[in-house]
Design brief:
This protein is an all-alpha fold. The chain is built from two helices and no strands. The chain has helices at 2-41, 48-69. It is elongated and about 60 Å long. The two termini are 29 Å apart.
Amino acid sequence: MIDKYLEITKKIATACGVFAAASIMLSIVIVTELVFERYIFGNAITWQPELVTHLLVASTFIAVSYTHLRAHLSLIHIS
């Protein structure tokens, strides 16, 4: 039973890592497009900076489970 639980949590953590990486890549594309649009056309879409902010914050918090799974993060328990 515990093995099944650990397998499911590893799959969920991996999916969170993939989502976080995709969010960062999407943020890079949006910022690149925003810079191009602003300096070439002199016009920018108003929702782009807010979307990038939300994606970066979400990827930061969602990636914690993936980094904890891969042991890049150690937590100190104070008793």
